[in-house]
Write a structure and sequence with these properties.
6 helices; Alpha-Beta Plaits; 10 strands; globular; single chain; alpha+beta
Length: 266
């Protein structure tokens, strides 16, 4: 059968994996996906992905590109992959893609979401999907301070060492910080969280959309905004950190388990 190009959207719980990208002797989402594909189609392959999510980071809309010769239809691939994949990885959709589709290079924007559980007591049900921060945070102050990051800037201050990018200039289209139920991620099959959703003032959701992101950029933005929310820094400090182009000036890198890759735009 002639080759065809596909675009798949995946969702996964990143807790059990050492990130997306294949690593020797470590469980990864890419490795699990590719081995499952081979079981289903008897076809080895290497896929491209929109983002190389780190260990412990989750995805609601990771996009994968691949070229295949399988005779299975897109619907058959969707059903077959979901039957064989572990419960913490799911194929949301399988769609035809243009020839030579590359999920990384074709992407023009991404949306990330970070969830903070802001209460004195930890959340039993969200402990793997939200950063527990017991300090009372001012979400409005965090939102206001974060507007200094909107636009095209050099984000060197928010980039961890180890990035392979040629430069640190990126564009953030929108950054929002909200307290309450709006824009909240619900963990899969978490009916208790669903039932209590209207009464969640302890939840803070940070969403950042942009044309691309540096290594640990979103998590460092979150850690920096939390400094403002806790009253340790004023709003102007975020703009000063951005201008400094020095990672040592920013806040901590927020833990991975509160981060979700929500959507990729093409």
């Amino acid at each position: 059968m002639a080759e065809r190009w596909l675009k798949l959207t995946l969702a996964y719980d990143g807790r059990a994996y050492s990130g997306w990208q294949i690593q020797p002797d470590k469980p990864t989402v890419q490795g699990t996906f590719q081995s499952t594909w081979q079981k289903l189609t008897q076809e080895p392959l290497n896929v491209t992905a929109a983002g190389r999510t780190d260990a412990g980071v989750h995805a609601l809309g990771q996009v994968v590109g691949l070229c295949t010769h399988t005779r299975l239809s897109n619907d058959d691939l969707l059903r077959g992959m979901n039957a064989l994949l572990p419960d913490d990885i799911g194929v949301v959709s399988v769609d035809d893609a243009p020839e030579n589709f590359h999920a990384t290079y074709a992407a023009i924007g991404k949306l990330y979401r970070y969830v903070i559980h802001n209460a004195r007591a930890p959340s039993v049900f969200d402990r793997h999907y939200a950063w527990h921060n017991p300090n009372q945070l001012d979400a409005a102050a965090m939102h206001g301070a974060g507007q200094a990051l909107v636009g095209r800037h050099d984000f060197s201050s928010f980039e961890s060492a180890g990035s392979e990018r040629p430069d640190s200039i990126r564009t953030i289209h929108e950054l929002t910080v909200r307290r309450g139920p709006h824009g909240i991620h619900l963990a899969p099959r978490d009916e208790l969280s669903r039932a209590e959703q209207p009464h969640q003032p302890q939840r803070i959701t940070i969403e950042v959309s942009g044309d691309g992101f540096l290594y640990n950029m979103v998590r460092t933005i979150v850690g920096t905004l939390v400094e403002v929310g806790a009253g340790k820094r004023d709003a102007q400090w975020v703009a000063d950190v951005l201008a400094a182009q020095d990672r040592r000036r920013a806040g901590q890198t927020a833990p991975p388990h509160g981060l979700f890759l929500v959507k990729v735009n093409y």
